[in-house]
Amino acid sequence: MRDRSTVLLAGLLVLIDIVMVGLAFIFSYFLRLWSEHLIPADVGSLRSYLGVILIQILTLITVFFLAKLYHRQRGLSHIDEFYAVFVAVSVGTIMSVAFNSFIIRNGPDYSRRMIVFNWALTIVLVTLGRLLYARLKWTVRSRGVASARVLIVGTGETGRMILHAIQRSPGLGYEVAGMVSQDSQDADLGVPVLGSTDQLPSLIDSHGIDEVIIALPEATSEEILPIISDCHRARVATMVYPSVFQLITSDLSIGHLGGLPLLTVRDTVLRGWRLTLKRAMDIVGSGAGLVLVSPFMVLMALLIKLDSPGRVFYTQERMGLDEKPFQMIKFRSMKEGAEDETGPIMAVKEDPRRTRLGALIRHFSLDELPQLINVFMAEMSLVGPRPERPVFVEQFKQIIPRYVERHQEKAGVTGWAQVNGLRGDTSIVERTKYDLYYIENWSILFDLKIIIKTFFVFFRDKAAI
């Protein structure tokens, strides 16, 4: 049943792409007529372009297949998919134009303007079609259709983190059959611990496992390779959660120092031109944001003043770059003097200290808007690890390995952890891992991806408190 549903979903995606490519060509034809004030008699009727449309569709679908656009990974970001569609359509359009010039002699007038229209519209419509498909697939998988039974190897902290990530995203289509321990000890995980790694082949067979996730980042290669071999023999898809070293050395180059070979780890440190480029993006982004939202911020300030007595803005000391404190600005969403009796405490779900308007403000993350001022003043960045209060930083440094490394970059208004649902009253350990991944894999494209995801995530994030 699952295999049949999977095939039907894959076929539906191909059909959607065909329809969108065809519609893009039709729209580009009429757009050309409108832009050049032409009539069909001047360039030929749409029917005369049927051969061109057919070549366009066949070429693009073939390129999509070769670019593995029909081998969609679970949880694939829409932004990453847009990048892939953009490249595939660009290559496919060039190839289809070349094929048309060789195959169709004395064909209709396929002008450069129409080619450009067709290229741009194809990118837009194919992306739109895939967004609709992803929403449909997410809904279907959330109801248990075409779901994959997954087994998590490792009951430690990483295994728990992966389990929670799957449970937060039912639309990924994973049904966790259970977990496997290295020592076969039971643990209170909310799912059964089925056995030890020595029993993996029989567990895969008896529980009908489709995919295995190995969550043992600290294990040695001698421990990991037999597990992978067992999965391979059982013919199940296998994924391995990487170790920190694997994360930071995923892009190596070999150099020489006086004849001695050296491995150069990917350089993502924010310095020189990288620091200048990120700062320029912060200035432009925060400046434009403040101009656009300033009327709304004035309205927000008025509503806060009318809703409850006290200040409109709330400043709080947070730790930023190199653990230097700064005053982070927020719209006040709590009652005035909320911590006078309790002292510093973290906000929780349905926090009773919220004002009536504050509940709405925090749900939609509107209290964060004034932090654009912090960004403009170079105290924060648009993207980076979320800043914590000094008292909590001191606590976390004592119990969380590598927590202090979060402060190697400026604190951000949004971050990789936040757009993946780790906000508010969620595990600081998991958030730290996401923050370190961001720091070790930083790029401008990564920042843009997080900013775009923020607009789609923040206003519907259930973790907001």
What is this structure, in a nutshell?
A hairpin with a 2-residue loop joins strand 6 (253-257) and strand 7 (260-264).
Descriptive terms for the model:
465 residues; alpha/beta; Rossmann fold; 3 domains; 5-stranded parallel β-sheet; two-stranded antiparallel ribbon
Describe this structure in words.
The protein is of the alpha/beta class and 465 residues long. It folds into three domains: 2-142, no CATH class; 148-241, NAD(P)-binding Rossmann-like Domain (Rossmann fold, 3-Layer(aba) Sandwich), CATH 3.40.50; 273-460, no CATH class. It is 52% helix and 12% strand. It is built from 16 helices and eleven strands. It has helices at 2-36, 40-43, 50-66, 78-103, 112-142, 157-168, 200-206, 221-233, 244-248, 273-307, 356-363, 371-376, 390-399, 416-419, 428-440, 444-457, and strands at 148-153, 174-181, 193-196, 211-214, 237-240, 253-257, 260-264, 313-319, 325-331, 381-383, 412-414. The strands form four sheets. It has a five-stranded parallel sheet with strand order 3-2-1-4-5, sandwiched between helices. A two-stranded antiparallel sheet has the order 6-7. Helix 1 (2-36) packs across helix 3 (50-66) and helix 3 packs across helix 4. The longest helix is centred in the N-terminal third of the chain and has 35 residues, at 2-36. The chain is globular.
